[in-house]
Amino acid sequence: MIDLHSHTINSDGTWSTEELLSKAQNLNLEVFSITDHDTVKAYSEIEKNENLQKIYKGQLIKGVELNCVFDGVKIEALAYDFDLLPVNNWLENYYTTEKNRNRLIEEFNDLVDICKKRKIKIEDNLQYNPDKEYPVDVIYDSVVKFDENKKFFTKEQWEDKGIFFRSCTVDKDFPLYRDFSKQMPTLEFFSNFIHENNGKIFLAHLYKYQLNNHLGYLNKIVEKGLIDGVEVYHSSFTDNQIGILEEYCENNKLLMSGGSDCHGERKKERKLGVGYGNLNIDKKILEDWNI
């Protein structure tokens, strides 16, 4: 069993690098990757700490989950097996605490402006703390306090904060859609950057995006030669979705990856290695990776 998608406290997980490595070892994962959002701090920690290096006995593949934009849609890409130093330097420079904070404030202000333009009611003088909250979460919590707003959204968007969030970032017809390209790198950029640094890049969890045509969107990416592979196995995928992506990768000569997307105690029902109990990813998918 392998797991190529997990998070530590360096992004939005709840376990330290040491804790996550220990849990991977206790599960006897054959191959493992930490893929924090927009940071590779976990690997810098491991490089500097001999005790951390001794915890996990399996094959550890360097990884990172990158927020980016393609065709006006905010997505995530998973990068693996890259040169650590240049990737770390770029991420550390682009995602400083101050820059991240300013981006979140800008996102919140944009969403408030969209609400006003669309006549979507939110609380007057709604407050936002970029050090503790995500903009979409605060907007959602305010929007659903007013029943008159229901007319703007589908039942799923109204009742599920996760669907509401993905609609904001993906669905151009969504009342609160926001274009993230003004503050986020493109998939084209990361494709070039990761390849220049000897890594591989994959589209993460395709079916989590609120798209009308998932394979049509994937085709656009593949036609431009931007990815090496696709995350075929993910905790949220059905067996049918996995089968579709397996066939797609085979037909298009793309590599396959997969993982639980474990965040520790956050979303704790999504467990390392097995996801919601539906995962048992075979190491054979790595045979074509040439690692």
Characterization of this structure:
The protein has 291 residues and is an alpha/beta fold. It has two domains: 195 residues, Alpha-Beta Barrel (TIM Barrel); 85 residues, no CATH class. It is built from eleven helices and eight strands. The strands form two sheets. It has a five-stranded mixed beta sheet. A three-stranded parallel beta sheet has the order 1-2-3, with no helix packed on it.
Q: Determine the fraction of residues in helical runs and give it as a percent range.
A: 25-40%
Percent strand equals: 5-15%
The CATH superfamily of the largest domain appears as Metal-dependent hydrolases
CATH topology of the largest domain: TIM Barrel
Runs in which pLDDT lies below 50 for 5 or more consecutive residues are none
Question: How much is the radius of gyration in Å?
Answer: 19 Å
Domain count:
2
Sketch the major β-sheet: 5 strands, mixed
* Oligomeric state of the chains in view: single chain
Q: From the helix content, strand content and strand pairing, which structural class follows?
A: alpha/beta
Counted beta strands: 8
State the distance separating the first and last CA atoms.
17 Å
Question: What does the secondary structure layout of this molecule look like, with pairings?
Answer:
Elements (H helix, E strand, L loop, with lengths): L1 E2 L13 H10 L4 E2 L8 H8 L1 H4 L5 E2 L2 E8 L2 E8 L3 H11 L2 H22 L16 H9 L11 H5 L1 H10 L16 H10 L3 E4 L10 H10 L5 E6 L4 H14 L2 E5 L32
Parallel strand pairs: 1-2, 2-3, 6-7, 7-8
Antiparallel strand pairs: 4-5, 5-6
Helix pairs in contact: 5-6, 6-8
